[in-house]
């Protein structure tokens, strides 16, 4: 009887290991999570928003992006109060998510065993696993549950690897170490809640490319992030293109309105309410003589304005 009792926990553990949840969802599971996206996808199933849209998104303000999302019912996509290595730089990219939790030895053993079965690199810490899946244009976004001391998810070695793979930086609801070394990686930037000289301990990776919480925001794999010194916006992939165009048109309307107010041609009340036909025609005339390069094509703008009644 004693032998059977001793063997039972081992049997249950082996059974649990053989049926353990994968570290990352399958491609089909990610597609189901992001089913509203109808365009190209990465090999892992994440939406692959075009580089051209990512480039245009960089010029959108946090307020404009937030306003569009809120009007569409997405009210939990912003997180602020970040520390940046390079405060004046902006970053856009396709999100790879990672979840960290306080260390629990039995669960960590299971995660390491699962990762080994999946062919993940077991030579170093599990905090290298999200980096292994990065591709060009990806942004590594991790929930480190705000841990600063002993919560440093990367140092400059991993930072170099991140930038080499993604040509992007990181967004950590947690901390980093070796900030001086990270700051010397040309093109790399980090949004973080703090930094500390300690190394990571008493915390563990639990998943990659599952939905995570970053402060007050919910983030899905394949979301597109707009990161600036004023905060981060996590945008569902299927909304990005419309958000960019809407924000670009709003910026043009603001530029036109500010100019006409300075000229004294219209009153604030006329600009801040629904425009008259005369103002709308004036705006279109101003657009046709726009002194700089429009951020969108003329066809995109014309099609957009046809569907709006300002």
Automatic annotation (TrEMBL):
Query: Which cofactor names does the annotation list?
Result: Mg(2+)
Q: List the InterPro entries.
A: RraA/RraA-like, RraA/RraA-like_sf
Q: Which residues bind substrate per the record?
A: 155-158, 177
Q: Span of the secretion signal?
A: 1-20
Query: Which keywords accompany this UniProt record?
Result: Magnesium, Metal-binding, Signal
Annotated binding of Mg(2+), by residue: 178
Q: Name one Pfam family in it.
A: RraA-like
In its UniProt record, a GO molecular function of this protein is:
metal ion binding
What name does the UniProt record give this protein?
Regulator of RNase E activity RraA
The protein's organism comes out as Dyadobacter koreensis
